[in-house]
Amino acid sequence: MQLEGKSVIVTGAALGFGYGIARALGQEGARVVVTDVHEENLSRSVSTMKADGSQVIMRKLDASDLNAFKGIVKETTDLWGRLDAVVHAGVIMPLEDWENGNEGQWWKEMSISFGGLLNATASAWDVMKKQGGG
């Protein structure tokens, strides 16, 4: 992969797919900002990534918070001069099955899963457009 020196934000990077993606990006030379709401698990993930030799920083982020997401994008571009990708892997776990769910839980899941995707796009759009892409 051609990832050396690329700057990437990964949401949901404390565990699971988000962590696996962030770790693989770091191992391939990308500079990674890992985010999640679960700081303790995120800290363990960062320790492992640093032991791999990855250039990584961690930030607490609720992906449903547009202003917080914009802050992470600004911090990333201030630190590394550009943003090449955002990987939105944040979801609420455990997901409730349909029979045990309720309207409040469904909307909370949507605000993280789909809303987080919209916030990632809205936050990175102007930066990537100005750069000519990611």
Automatic annotation (TrEMBL):
Coiled coil: none annotated. InterPro entries: NAD(P)-bd_dom_sf, SDR, SDR_fam. Belongs to the short-chain dehydrogenases/reductases (SDR) family. PANTHER family: 3-OXOACYL-(ACYL-CARRIER-PROTEIN) REDUCTASE, 3-OXOACYL-[ACYL-CARRIER-PROTEIN] REDUCTASE FABG. This is Uncharacterized protein. It comes from marine metagenome.
